Amino acid sequence: MAISVDELDTQMRVAAFEHVRRLNEAHDHLTANELKPGFIFNGDRIPLINPQRGIFKPQQMRFLLSIKTVFPKPGGKVWYDDQREVHRQIFASDETIEYAFMGRDPNAADNRWLREAFEHQVPILYFLGIAPGRYQAVVPTFVTGWDAGTLKARIVFGAPEQGALAPPENAFERRYALRTVKQRLHQASFRVAVIAAYNGRCALSGLPESLLLDAAHIVADKDEKFGQPVVPNGIPLSKIHHAAFDAHLIGIDPDYRLHVSERLLGQRDGPMLEALKRLNGGTIHFPKREKDRPDRDRLALRFERFKTAA
User: Which residues lie closer than 8 Å to 63 by C-beta, 6 or more apart?
Assistant: First the structure.
């Protein structure tokens, strides 16, 4: 028996969501390399986005599939110095955010797709820009308002683990979902900004592979005074150096000198350990801009913990 257009749309949507969730599991962020191929449904390739537009409905589907917020490329200023409106909205909001229409005509096709998604409560994908050409995929997302006067739609996020295709039922669920997005945005934006500041290299070893780097906090973000997600509170470290830094086996003093704990210096066990020990007495690799260097006051706080643990 032939299935209806709505049922076919739902099946494609579920397949798209499953594909994007797998991409999220495999990547810290998504780029054109991951998004351009789209996904396969019944042997056919279905696009996820339109590279030139932020609101996208594949020809094969009845309803809107995705919206996108592009993070602008740098122009004079380094991109992570700029306050971006959508990020501000997410961090300032309790339940929902706004999404601007395409152009000034509310009846243009893109904006009609937003209205139809609102009227039919269709779950969609939101590719949220965190850096030029880099996105966090929020799955699922819902259009819960459409205003031709303000030329804006209202967006609410669903819980990432939510399997249902219905929007959050109450304020508690909406706040929980938005809080989850805030945490992911905080982590992703901080990581990208810190690693970009150091040209994609570990500040201790110089390792140039960004996939093997973390953005380590100097002062943990739970510290309200010093734990802000700003570049001077971060340092890019490879996985092994990050683990050693968090375990207070490696310390960085306020003059950027490296200290290796006596616990490590006294061990003899292979080339990896010897590479860590050779850091003792050296200095970190600095970021491109002096203003992005690790904050000395934060380093002093962290170094006191290193000395106490030693």
Answer: 9, 13, 57, 113, 116, 117, 120, 122
Residue 201, CA distances (Å) to 62, 72, 208, 214 in order: 45, 23, 4, 10
Range with the poorest average pLDDT among 53-62, 156-165, 260-269:
156-165
Here the tokens at position 33 are 């390399």
**Who's near 238: CB < 8 A, 6+ residues apart?**
202, 204, 205, 207, 212, 213, 214
For the chain, the distance separating the N- and C-terminal CA atoms, rounded to the nearest angstrom, is 72
Taking only Cα atoms into account, the Rg of the chain, rounded to an integer number of angstroms, comes to 23
**DSSP of 26-65, one letter per residue?**
H-SSB-HHHHTT-EEETTEEE-S-BTTBSEE--TT-SS--
Average pLDDT over residues 20-41: 93
| Chain mean position to CA 85 | 16
Q: Distance between CA 114 and CA 9 in Å, rounded?
A: 16
Report how far residue 72's alpha carbon sits from residue 31's, in angstroms, rounded to the nearest whole number.
14
Residue 157, H or E segment: strand 152-157
d(CA 303, CA 288): 23
Q: How many residues does the chain have?
A: 310
Local structure of residue 4 (DSSP, 8 states): P
Rounded-to-integer distance, Cα 116 and Cα 124, Å: 12
Q: Is the dihedral of CA 85, 88, 90, 93 positive or negative?
A: negative
Question: What is the per-residue pLDDT across 141-156, written as a single tens digit (0 to 9) for each?
Answer: 999 999 999 999 999 9
Residue 294 confidence (pLDDT) above 80: yes
Beta-carbon count within 10 A of 18 CB: 12
Q: At residue 173, what is the residue type?
A: E
Residue with tokens 């310390």: 251
- Give percent above pLDDT 90 in the chain: 63
Residue type, 143: V
Distance CA 257, CA 250 (A): 10
